[in-house]
Amino acid sequence: xxxxxxxLLIAYVYAQTPCDNIRTRSMWGSRSTSLTWMPTQPPSGFAxxxxxxxxxxxxxxxxxxxxxxxxxxxNTNGWADIGYNFCIGDPGQIYEGxxxxxxxxxxxxxxxxxxxxCFFGDHTSTLPTxxxxxxxxxxxxxxxxxxxxxSGHWVSTHRGDRQSNTACPGQALxxxxxxxxxxxxxx
Length: 187
Known about the structure:
With 187 residues, the protein is an alpha/beta fold. The protein has helices at residues 2-15, 25-28, 59-76, 130-145, 171-177, and strands spanning 22-23, 45-50, 86-88, 94-96, 114-119, 154-157.
């Protein structure tokens, strides 16, 4: 009986997706905010960004980065909250920003129709870790499978927003995301 329980626990751990292991706002120490619901549910797009700030290699460091980004977006940009729906650090952990169903503030032309997902760090000349890249792709798939993205969703980057003039998400990450399934340069 003990062996069966252990095997079931192992199977459960390996069956989990990034959607099952999101570090929530309360876990990383988010400020309390009021958010706007996204007008289109579920959204049709997934927009990739980089923070152009520090990378993080530990949970504690990524928690600090989430708070730093939220503080910058609220205190400097004057936004209601962190602009991204989700973020990811070098270990591959997904962090809840605004979360599912909430309108982002990550790219003017995408805010109402795409989940905004950022990679911590500057990815102009270096890629995120393999764990962060693969978990982001798995996250896109499980978000779609669970109805948080449309089945015909597109993937793009901040550069794909015709209302933005930006180098985000950095050339190295731009080149990588352009190889992903469902990538559209300007949706």
